Structures are given as C-alpha cells and as structure tokens.
Amino acid sequence: MFTKFGKSIMMTSSVLALSGVAFAQDQDSTLKTNRVVPFNGVKDYRTWSVGAWGGGSAAFGPFGGPYYFNNFDFKNVGFVYGAYVKKQIFHNFGLQADFMRGQVKGATKASQTLTDIHGAPLAGGIKSFSTDIDWSASLSGVFSLGSINWINKQSFVIPYVSVGAGAMAFKPTVTAADGTETAVKTSGGKSTHTEMFIPVGVGAKFVVAPGVNIDLAYNTNFVNSKVFDGVNSGNKDKFSTAKLGLEFALGKKRKPQLAVVNPAAQLAEDLWSKNAALKTSLAESDARNQAAIGQLKDEVDGMKRDTDGDGVPDYLDKCPNTPAGTKVDGAGCPLPAPVQVVKEKVIITEADKKVVKDAIDNLEFDLGKATIRPNSFASLDKVASLLVEKNFSLKLAGHTDNTGSAATNMRLSKERAESIKSYLVSKGANPSRIEATGYGSTQPIATNKTAAGRQQNRRVEFTLY
C-alpha cells in the first residue's frame, strides 16, 4: 500500500511542476488590473499575502524508509491546519512564515513484527501511534515555476516548490496491541518534545480572482527526532501533509499580485501601449505637417503671383500694373530710357608732345628737394595751357637715383610729382585729371654707377592721355 502511496505522491509532484504549461489559461477578464510599467521596482505590486489551510497527514513520505507504521489507511490520516504570511521578493521567489497544528497518526500491518518503543521485537508490542502537534513555526523560501508565461498573458495555475526550516512541539502517544496507551516522554521526563524540522514541498496556486488564490500543496517534513512516532526505529522520522487553502493578497486592489502576475505580459503590454501612443503621436505629427505644407504652398503661390507680368512678384512690386513689355528694375518700376554715352576721342599732336618734352627737358629742382626752380616755369605754363585748352589728362611719375635710402628716395619722388601737379593746378589745370605718383629708385632708365646715369634717373615723366 505504501508503494502505491509513494508513487502517487511522486506523480502528483510531477504533475504540479508541469501544471503551469498544462493548465495555463488566459484569465484577462477575471484578472483585470492596472498595467504596471516594467523595470520600475515592486512598488506597483501587492507583495504581502496571508493564507489559511487545512489538510491531512500521514506517518511516512516519498523519501527514505523503511517505516514502522506503514499501513496506509484513511482511518490513519490525521488532520492538520495552519496559516501563513508571505512576502514576495521577486516574481519567482518569496519568503513564507508558516504556523501549523494538528495530529499525525499511523498503524502497523497485520503481518508486521511488533516492537517496543525502543525498536526491540516484542510480542504484543506497539500497534499504532498518535502524535499531537501543539505548534510548529517555520520560514521557507518559495520558488514559483510558472509565473513567466510566453504563451498566455496570465497563467491560471502557478506551480511552486518550497524548502525551509523551523521548530515544532509535539506529544507522541503509542498504543500496544492490547489497547494500552503510553505517552512517550523526553529523556528529561517531559511529555512535550521540541525539535527542529525541515519542510520540503511542492504545490500550485490556482488564481480565481485578483488577489485571491486557491493553494494546493504537499509537504514532507523531516523531523530532527527518532521518536516523533513514539518508536525509536533507528532513523529520524518524517511525515507528510497534503494541504488545501486560500491565499489573499494584501494592499490596494488596483495593484496586481507580484507572485502570480506574468512579467512577460506586463512587458508586452507596456510595449503595445508605447507603440499605440507612438502611432497616435506620429499620426498627429503627420497631420500637423500636412497642414503646414498646405499653408506653405499657399504662401509660396501667393509670393509667386505676378499680376502685371513684369517678372517681379506682386509682394515686391513697387509699381504695380506696368504696361506689358515695359522693362523694369528689381522693384518693378520702369527703367529710365538709356542715355547713349559718346566717348570723346583724345588726339595728341606732335606739337602737344613737343610741349611736354620741352617741359621735361627744362625741369629742374633744388638739390635733394621738391622745390621747382624758376627757369622751369615757362615750360610748365605751356603744359598747363595745353591741359586747360584740350582737356587732356596727365600722369606724373617721379623717379630718383639710388643715392640715399629707399624710403627717402620714394618720398622725394612722390613729393616732386606732387609739386608739379600743384603748380599746374595753380595755373588753371583740373586737379582731377592729374595723377601724381612716386616710384623712388625702383625704375631706373640708366646705370646708377656713373654721374651721367644717375642724372638720367633723376626725372619726372609726363604722360598725356
């Protein structure tokens, strides 16, 4: 019988571990809560929950053996109950504080050799036991297996496994074959034993409403005692519990419960929401752009409008409605009739050239100065008369030899050209038609190594035009 029970427990555990896939259902209508922004911590979730449960117990488990009390019968199923407080840390992990009370019972098979409470064979020995659990308290880590679901938005079933540690106080009583009951006490003579134990379990939460879950679980409890069942068979005892209860999430109802919400669905909802908002924003932006483009086209068409066809848009046309074919300026106003400019032809005769040559030949200055000597005045007077009578233009170019510094020579050549210009202007010549330039010693016409050459280089050239 025990072999069948052990196999059944193992199969139940496997089914629970796979139930997140086998029984996943979309519960959108039942589990409607506000959308939570991913990667924003747990402040938008309900992380605390409380639960209460009841169930049955058996004097053995799926692990280890042999068991002295191995006659599994529903008459030997004890009643246990409890409550818990749970704090969910992550989507798939939480801490759970459990409290339990109840009774564990067991009996031997008819063919079994009976023993005393120390495990020694004894005719008429121990036939059954009953252990009252006054209290037990434990803290377990609970690992959820089905909260992340890429197939459905919300899983209807959330499988989990748990493991923890705690302490319990219990009172074992054994019954001999003749019906005599004996309380098994501690080595110190106390009827209540207090020992550590390790609860290991599998289970599943069935989501029935936002924040309300049915909790179905199986636990094997490894007790740090060889007399939990009243008989010291040489091994530390263990017992099983099967539990059915309700869990209630604490906090604001609009917040989803962290333990059962599907983070993959939350991420998808957030992406869909942002995608919809982006589409709306793009559509609004496109509508605004199209309206702006239409307005701009109207403005451009208005700026291109040219009512009188003169090539100047109306908004720039200072003289609208000009006759067709009228030539206009950039402001759209008629251009004045062009004035034909007759270029005066300048004719310089040989006699004119001789007047200029005589002035050059007779031109003298004081040594190292720009002062014109009086014997040059007569020739310059003739040049002035020529400029006045024939409206000629004159270019004066002053030159020096290389005696002295370049700067001094440049200044002296310029001053001599200007001195001649001033003299001619004083005789009535138009100053705007006389150009005076100095070149210093930069343009010699003879060698500066001889006195004759330097004499030739000290000159002012006259050019009529």
Could you please describe the fold and organization of this structure?
The protein is an alpha+beta fold. The chain folds into 2 domains: 2-259, Porin (Beta Barrel); 350-464, OmpA-like domain (60s Ribosomal Protein L30, Chain: A), CATH 3.30.1330. The chain is built from 6 helices and 12 strands. The strands form 2 sheets. It has an 8-stranded antiparallel β-barrel. Strand 10, helix 5 and strand 11 form a beta-alpha-beta unit. Mean pLDDT is 85; it is low at 1-32.
CATH architecture tag of the largest domain: Beta Barrel
- Helix-strand category: alpha+beta
Helix content: 25-40%
Biggest sheet: strands side by side, in what order? Answer: 1-2-3-4-5-7-8-9
Number of strands: 12
Instruction: Count the DSSP helices.
Output: 6
Order of helices and strands: HEEEEEEEEEHHHEHEHE
Domain count: the total is 2
Strand content: 25-35%
GO biological process, one term: monoatomic ion transport
Subcellular location: Cell outer membrane
GO molecular function, one term: calcium ion binding
Membrane topology: Multi-pass membrane protein
